[in-house]
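Project outcomes to date are best conveyed with an example. Our students and postdoctoral researchers have been running inverse folding experiments weekly, and each run begins with a structure described purely in tokens. The record below, which covers 339 residues, was selected by the lab manager from last quarter's runs and is presented without edits.
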């Protein structure tokens, strides 16, 4: 059914969730308009480093299906689309507490133990994961959508009714933290995060991550992204501004040096050295869930009568860059059904 005004489909949000959903729609022949609100909280997607780190949330069977599909899709992009900003690379994970992970996940990622386990950790593993350079990936996704004829409009959508009045029949709500207001969903909460990008002067070839269970009580990660390093991070629940603080960035650099030292890298002291810093960034993760849960991602169709519907696709928390191709596929299946 063609819309009277505007395209039949609208997507609210041009973060990684909205862009991948838009491409899935366009690939199935839909005409799509994408709305973005540039005055809103800083989108999570632009600040994410990002490495394939799916976090369990919601139904375990859905988590497994989403993880497997997204891992394969990103691996295919790394193999066949050199300009996408996606590459497969080693991630070393260090744990202060013994991790609990499903066996299928270790199998999927080819996880193997690192031995001997360096002090002060109780477990150490290595796996091969997608590394996504969001500064390349987001413009690449957008140009793919534009080549498919998608129109991008910089306009804040105040309500679903407003978007229906433009003539759209199906609206995909991929608004990240903006979904809290649009969908009146109290489970959506902002979680501010800071990172620092530096030159890779130490020739690091693998990424590192700890489980945030050390004495600092905060995570340390060093991701090799293209020719630079991204050091993180912070998790400030409830915070949705764009600010960064020097003390937070210095804390990140100290924690990352300690992690690299424990790993045994000979040049750990040079990490984040003066003059190597490229940029400091902050983003707001769209977490969703009751206390202690962050990734109860909502992918659900809400009928609005007269053949109209909203398909919600938000609440990706800490793992939107990882799983968005899977949430996009499910959302578009709901939006287009058997068309
Ligand atoms: C520091 C940091 C590190 C991270 N690291 C990783 C990682 O390693 N791996 C990983 O997988 N994920 C990581 N993440 C999480 C990941 O970035 C997010 O899960 C993901 O970007 C969420 O994408 P999104 O499209 O849902 O939201 P966003 O990127 O926030 O996009 C929301 C979009 O909605 C639009 N919008 C909102 N309200 C409205 C409105 N009313 N009208 C019109 N448009 C609207 C905004 O303009 C924006 O375009 C990280 C995040 C941060 C901040």
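After processing, the design step wrote out the following sequence:
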């Amino acid at each position: 059914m063609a819309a009277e005004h505007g395209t039949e489909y609208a997507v609210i949000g041009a973060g990684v969730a909205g862009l991948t959903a838009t491409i899935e729609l366009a690939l199935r022949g839909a005409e799509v308009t994408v709305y973005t609100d540039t005055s809103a909280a800083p989108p999570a997607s632009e600040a994410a480093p990002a490495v394939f780190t799916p976090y369990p949330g919601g139904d375990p069977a859905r988590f497994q299906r989403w993880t497997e599909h997204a891992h394969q899709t990103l691996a295919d992009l790394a193999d066949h689309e050199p300009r996408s900003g996606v590459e497969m690379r080693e991630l070393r994970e260090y744990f202060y507490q013994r991790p609990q992970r499903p066996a299928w996940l270790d199998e999927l990622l080819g996880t193997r133990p690192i031995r001997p386990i360096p002090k002060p950790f109780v477990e150490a593993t290595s796996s091969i994961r997608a590394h996504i350079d969001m500064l390349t990936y987001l413009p690449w996704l957008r140009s793919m959508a534009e080549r498919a004829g998608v129109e991008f409009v910089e306009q804040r959508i105040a309500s679903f009714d407003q978007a229906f009045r433009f003539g759209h029949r199906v609206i995909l709500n991929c608004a990240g933290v903006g979904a809290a207001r649009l969908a009146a969903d109290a489970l959506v909460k902002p979680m501010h995060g800071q990172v620092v990008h530096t030159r890779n002067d130490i020739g690091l070839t693998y990424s590192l991550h700890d489980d945030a269970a050390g004495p600092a009580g905060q995570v340390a990660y060093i991701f090799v992204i293209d020719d630079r390093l991204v050091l993180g991070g912070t998790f400030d629940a409830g915070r949705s501004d764009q600010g960064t603080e020097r003390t937070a960035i210095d804390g990140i650099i100290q924690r990352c040096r300690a992690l690299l030292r424990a790993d045994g890298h000979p040049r750990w002291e040079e990490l984040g050295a003066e003059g190597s810093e490229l940029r400091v960034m902050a983003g707001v993760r769209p977490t969703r869930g009751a206390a202690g849960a962050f990734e109860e991602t909502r992918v659900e169709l809400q009928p609005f009568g007269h053949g109209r519907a909203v398909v919600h696709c938000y609440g990706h928390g800490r793992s939107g860059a990882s799983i968005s191709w899977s949430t996009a596929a499910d959302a578009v299946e709901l939006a287009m059904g058997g068309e």
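Residues 60-80 form the longest helix (21 residues). The first strand starts at residue 9 and ends at 12. The training component of this project remains on track.
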